[in-house]
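Input structure tokens:
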């Protein structure tokens, strides 16, 4: 019997499709000596739900699932039909996976106890960020954070399992539903992005070891409320205009963040006189993106301190957010601090 050694095929005939998300997760599992595959399973569950939400998003105009649902969530925001659908899809996936003991969702007033006392992890999630843009065919997304529970297994979850600062995250990521669908995540060892191939039903590694440019020339902020900004921020925006920076604001957090992560820039959702605590949620929006930004070499603050060091005090706590290229965030923070110091000295 003859044995022939395998050699790669001619790439001109059959090109490589790359590394699938499942294979990548399996390879990287060794980075977590405390895990026995549970964290990997959660990431797979999130990826599966994302595929379903991607399908629903793409057929929204045909299936009459766009538009308002007729109810408001805990934030007082009008729920879209796809908000509700996405929340159901992710909740089902995380429940059936069996590795999660509790979920915090933007769409639910309270913590959802999955009654799985052996689950080692807590997930905080915004199932469908930017859903008001669905009807006008603009990119939307999903944002998620994963924490290890701190109380002993076999017991019901307690508040300390939920109310953890962002520096305790073991993984975080987002899914961008746009011209292509991407899943980007970190487990504290860099950031990797995967693009969905619908004909194969798989996410493939397309953006390995993503790194944010240290500086940039894009600023993303809703200038329609500029009269409500504090003086330091107004001066920073004026400085951006003097340098002829590009103003790019989609109004979809994941899409704006993703663009600036790749091209270099700063995303700002500040405190204003109308919303002094900001509007973005700490547990399932700011913390996740801050973790990703830092792992990619970027920076995230509330204007005065590191986002990941904020101790949460309430489930749907809000925060200002300055996030993106390190030099741009540092400069914006500097403008705010100079103004603040002057106020104190007066």
């Amino acid at each position: 019997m003859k044995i022939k050694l395998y050699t790669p095929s001619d790439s001109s005939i059959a090109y490589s499709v790359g590394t699938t998300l499942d294979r990548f997760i399996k390879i990287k599992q060794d980075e977590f000596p405390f895990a026995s595959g549970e964290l990997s399973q959660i990431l797979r569950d999130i990826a599966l739900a994302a595929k379903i939400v991607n399908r629903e998003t793409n057929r929204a105009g045909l299936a009459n699932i766009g538009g308002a649902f007729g109810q408001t969530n805990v934030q007082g925001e009008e729920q879209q039909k796809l908000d509700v659908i996405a929340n159901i899809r992710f909740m089902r996936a995380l429940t059936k996976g069996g590795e999660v003991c509790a979920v915090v969702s933007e769409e639910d007033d309270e913590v959802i106890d999955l009654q799985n006392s052996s689950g080692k992890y807590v997930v905080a999630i915004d199932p469908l960020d930017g859903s008001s843009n669905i009807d006008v065919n603009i990119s939307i997304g999903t944002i998620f954070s994963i924490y290890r529970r701190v109380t002993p297994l076999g017991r019901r979850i307690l508040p300390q399992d939920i109310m953890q600062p962002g520096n305790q995250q073991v993984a975080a990521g987002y899914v961008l539903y746009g011209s292509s669908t991407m899943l980007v995540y970190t487990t504290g060892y860099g950031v990797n992005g995967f693009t969905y191939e619908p004909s194969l039903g798989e996410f493939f590694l397309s953006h390995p070891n993503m790194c944010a440019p240290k500086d940039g020339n894009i600023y993303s902020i809703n200038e329609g409320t500029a009269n409500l900004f504090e003086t330091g921020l107004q001066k920073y925006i004026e400085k951006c205009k003097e340098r002829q920076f590009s103003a790019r604001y989609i109004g979809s957090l994941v899409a704006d963040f993703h663009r600036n992560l790749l091209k270099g820039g700063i995303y700002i959702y500040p405190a204003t006189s109308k919303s002094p605590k900001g509007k973005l949620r700490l547990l399932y929006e700011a913390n996740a993106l801050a973790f990703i930004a830092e792992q990619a070499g970027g920076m995230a603050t509330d204007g005065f301190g590191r986002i990941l060091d904020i101790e949460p005090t309430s489930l749907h706590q809000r925060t200002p957010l300055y996030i993106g290229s390190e030099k741009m965030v540092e400069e914006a923070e500097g403008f705010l601090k100079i103004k603040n110091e002057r106020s104190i000295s007066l």
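Residues 342-346 have pLDDT under 50 and may be disordered. The longest helix spans residues 38-58.
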